[in-house]
Design a protein that fits this description.
heterodimer, A: 434 residues, alpha+beta, 2 domains, 15% strand, B: 405 residues, 3 domains, 4-stranded antiparallel beta sheet, 13 strands
Amino acid sequence: MLRYYLELALHSLRRSSMLTALMVLAVALGIGACMTTLTVYHVLSGDPIPHKSARLFDIELDAADKAGWQPGQEPTFQLTRFDAEALLRAGHARRQVMMSGARVPVQPESAAIKPFYAPARLTSADFFPMFEAPFLHGGGWDAAADAAKSRVVVISKSLNDKVFGGVDSVGRDITIRRQAMRVVGVMNDWRPVPHYYDLTLGNYAKAEDVFIPFSTAMDMKIGSSGNRDCWGSSGGAGPGDLSAPCSWVQYWVELNSAADAPAFKAYLTRYSEDQQRAGRFERPPNVRLRNVTDWLVHREVLPADVGLQVWLAFGFLLVCLVNTVGLLLAKCLRRSTEIGVRRALGASRGAIFAQFVVEAGMLGAAGGVLGLGLAWLGLWLVRHSPAEYAPLAQMDWPMLALTLVLALVASVLAGVLPAWHAARVAPARYLKTL
Amino acid sequence: MELRPILSTLRRHKTAALLIVVEVAITSAIVCNALHLIANRLALLNHDTGLPESELVVLDVRGTGGPADTEDDTAQDLQALRALPGVKGATISNQIVYGNNSSNSGVKLDPSDRSGAIQASQYYGREQIISTLGLKLLAGRDFLPEEYVTGAVFDKMAQPSIGQVIINRRLAERLWPGQSALGRNILVFDDTPSTVVGVVEQLPHPYPGKAQNKEGYSMLFPIRPSFRGGVYLLRVDPAQADAVMKAAPAVIERVDNTRIVASVKSLPEMRRTYYAEDRAMVWLMSGVIVALLVVTAFGIVGLASFWVAQRSRMIGTRRALGATRGQILRYFQLENFLLSSAGIVLGMVAAYGISLVLMANYELPRLPWSYLPLGAAALWLLGQAAVLAPARRAAALPPVAALRS
């Protein structure tokens, strides 16, 4: 029976090809717009580390002075170097990392490559296992290297390609800020989306090219980049000094399970109370422990424009669908005589209904395929847009499937009202006019 | 004209009529809000910083941890840059509008004030910054040579203090409304006062128009950053800007080639990059408005054509009974006008509702009333344009059409 309906639908669609083309195009435009914006939304709001995001926590302590303090406000969102080092020494979590962004000058041996600045991460050893950075050669360093302020680095694949021509450079030296540093690891291509472990350098920034032990970088007096909030008087301390009254270090912990979070939070509160008693913290203990998902929501990572665009696209799809309902209705009322004949020959109301829904579904399938093409075009346009996240706008399989399903569901829904009208046609009245 | 026959016909085609009304309503609601969004972004894109942007070039130079004498290098750089043909002035500043960093501080008048309410952007600039940025002094004077402090010295001060400051008009009006700011003190570095020696018309925040600095307060201190702590600003003859930008890196390398010229950009170029996403949003919104209107127009054409075909017998009868072509044409035009109007009324209510939702979720201003007639007019025109072809086809039907079917 379905095959007969499909034949009928095809026949009917072909008979008024202009109208059919118009309806397919309207569905395709709506679907294309929706899928373009939804794909961008889906990519940008994804979980960067799904199997672990509930166990990874960003830590905040309120180390600032009393000036401008109001009860209940959020603490400064980064740590001072002093507190970060104290927590790292205590090592209460399964893994913990303190870090900051930076830009470092790289001076390749070969005179053919001009010295250049590369984005860098100054971090303690747990970074690599904690955020699951993939390695091509070698690996990260250990806590002993942190303690010894070893001159070691991990570099990205692209930097390895640029400076070492893509060969395994583990064990070789690279000159950073006029210091020979031993390469211990070369990372594979890696781009966590969003750049969740440090949101101060752009929410969708690329992963860094150079990773240096935090302690080594402090020893080399490498300055940090990113956000730095200072308060009170520095008392002559340099920006990177242990005593600088500034929050600029990101601190993350990995716990054994999400259930350990309250205990860890209590530990942080105790630490804050100790600091307050010692006179370092002027504010009452105010700590935050946010897992990856909460952290991304709290920092409002998803650009507001992206949400707006999704709403706009669905509004557009709605107009396209109302339009399709109207045109389908016009079409099926025009075919009242044909319906009358079929009913008189014994087709039930249900059969007529099914026939018209199948026809709408067929429109939807065609619109979905064309819409997929338009979404592909739309994403190509997004990739050429100036946004930081532009290169990430790629369609994946779930989105591709969703496109076709959405098109089919939407068009069948659009077909219900006209089909219901068609099924109500009284045969006698139209037979008379034959 | 004869409204009653139109209404009674529509009553018999409730569903189709309702669909047109709904389509017009949604379209007009979205169009109103999209136009409003576009207008907002355009206002941002056309924001005037008051700087001679087309004459400014920004040069970012970085050290590589070498033995270079930072202060000496900076002085030599400036001298060499000023000697370039086409360069009218050169200075160095810790930040610049559309640059990617900004330094801000709380400003207070009273040491006991702990509210931190007034946040101002904090510029450090070398000699010639007033003339290079084309800042217009409304009152007071430029800094005197002996008032400048070297950046490295300032960084090492145990108790930082700078005796003089130039502030922009907005900050002056906020601190001392209706009064002269000259000779008064502000507290920025702990509780040591800085005396206002000048007020300038414009000194923009590095991120103009973005939420964190809507007020646009800013201040300038006589601190000389080195090339490590700031960017070079060149005021050039616009005709020679390209030549200057090409020549500048070689000048820097000649002074000390251990350094890296990270970027040479003109301010118009930086402005384009800064607003690129907003511009993209304007194009996107415009595209959606056009697509919406086109789809709606086709919907109206489609349904009107269907109605004409369906009512050909009625039209023929009316023509046979003496109705003119013009009357038939006007019948369809009036019918469309009624449907559009109903849709527009519904749409205006929806537009307002959408605006309230956007205000709550996306920090957008309220939709001004003036957009409602604009959206209404657009949809009325669209409806009339779309119905014209089917209506003319109807008017062209000969009276015998009534007998044929």
